[in-house]
């Protein structure tokens, strides 16, 4: 065994008497510090982007909701603090309850239609057949089009006098006179929901189909041996394994649907008689038509809170269901 005072160790020891390990330790700390700086340098652009394009608008919107921020503010620069007056005015307006109810109906109807049709198409395309890939690609077309373009096309299709839909229904004898799909308060919201379902189906199919592809075929083969075919196979194999994907689809679907603006503006503009007015369109109307930016910001904050509340409740319920098996 080599002694600590052997000539070999003494030759490698620094002049100040410190051990080699003590000399190399600061170097490791230096390299560690350089690595942290590199990591922060890579993260900094993303953080700066989020703060600039997401953080600042949200903070600005919250501040505006407590100010008398209107068209004159752009000229005199004055936006006095008014406390909760903007919230009180926006929530006490009779249109708010109508918009809130329409938002709920529009969101629930769209999500149910998109999910059921999307899941059915995903199960259908799971079976391999000629041109299935081409059909799946064509199915994504509504998702790729700008929403305002889709709204213009559907506005032409649903037009009362010369619309394609009424012409087809009249030609087949299903209706005797044209239906005002977008001009009647009884059918306008239903028509808007139908169009939004058409737009959202590709999103549901894309995610649900990818989730189905991740389920091993061996599980279905084992289930067939135990008599789990058809509905039993779907209930006991497909649905449990597809639950994480379903959670993402429903959560994102609600968040996207609850804030839909351009589709409704392009189809009905919130009319007729506020029949398709939602919280998003009402906030837009207050801000950019009535130029009451304070009330518009207040209503948009209410919409954000509703979306956050739903997200928290849904995620907790889903986590509890997953924990209980």
TrEMBL record:
An annotated GO cellular component: plasma membrane
Protein name: ABC transporter permease
Protein keywords: Cell membrane, Membrane, Transmembrane, Transmembrane helix, Transport
Main location: membrane
Claim: Mitochondrion is one of the keywords in the record: no
Membrane topology: Multi-pass membrane protein
Annotated ABC transmembrane type-1 domain residues: 100-314
Sequence intervals crossing the membrane: 37-56, 104-125, 137-157, 188-209, 241-258, 293-315
Localisation: Cell membrane
One Pfam family it belongs to: BPD_transp_1
Origin species: Brachybacterium endophyticum
InterPro entries: MetI-like (IPR000515), MetI-like_sf (IPR035906)
